Amino acid sequence: MSLAHGRPYLAIPGPSVIPDRVLRAMHQGSPNIYEGPLIDLAASLWPDLRQVAGTRHHLAAYIGNGHGGWEAANANLFSKGEKALVIAVGQFGLSWANSARAMGIEVEVLDFGKSTPADMDQVEAALRADRDHRIKAVLACHVDTASSIRTDIPALRAAMDAAGHPALLAVDCIASLGCDEYRMDDWGVDVTVAACQKGLMTPPGLAFVWFSDKARARCGRGDLASPYWAWGPRVDATEFWHIWDGTAPTAHLYGLRAALDMIAEEGLTNVWHRHRVLAGAVWAAFDSWSAGNPAIGMNVAKPADRASSVTAARFGAPHATRLRQWCETKAGVTLGIGLGMAAETDPAYHGFLRVGHMGHVNAHMTLGALAVMEAGLVALDIPHGPGALAAAARVVAAGAL
Prior knowledge:
Helix content: 40-55%
Structural class: alpha/beta
């Protein structure tokens, strides 16, 4: 017997829940792409996208996903044979490194594992060891979507400055933009990469690269900056089609306009607060469940190192997979797989999952997902501690004051 019939809830770390307002905005015929209202609508997006990223600098937009955003950043930051230092705290840091390698970029990886934050002393030491300044840029994920580790970007910038290294700082904000506090200019970031399908609440299909004057002066003219990926023609566009190197993604622009309006109406600092409170509710539930079963726990030990958009967790194999399947088929809640924690052929793979709480998410959605998870723990006879839902409710009640 299933109780899943009704509106499903996709509680994965992206693509996130699409607001009805965004869907309605997108549901219209193709417009004139040469002149008229679409041109004005698109122009209105750029100031708001800069505000969300915390920058006054340049913005290039691409039809693509987050991996496309990486490729755009790589193509403009580097020429073949130039060197990147990648700070990896999970699967997506390693994936960005692999993307760069595949493009002919030399990559040095500082891999801090899957559950611990970056050690900035090691970052500083690696940069000091690069006496010839071969490293052109440091690449880091603000939030690694797989591990749910949040990297302290101001601390990373401070480590680079302490080393006296001229490398540019490029940050992947795909899982954090519009969820966690992020201030590109204030934190000394030179290049920011994001996409529309998570905190920006729009279906996958748009990638963004913001870049500073310093980055523009140093980059964008190498042998990897092909006509499609080069950011110069997009920011210096004299015709609308130059922004996209072809036809504009019209439906996405309508949807993104609605999503940015929603963020502005709520207020960006309020958006950050909402995500932090809802994340805290998830953490409180896990703390209670783990009191009755040490196999249950969050992947990241310290709250200061955790993302506000996603929580990676363990339940012990095979219970995470069993719980995910029960929640989806019996109650209509889809949880995320434990990406990168173990190979799919390894039995340990079935001990990890992720709870997404990003974008268009509110208290009843998060509390409902936790209640479904607790029902699954009961139904599957998975040992767990009591009081999780009450603990989560207390966090929500305090955060709403």
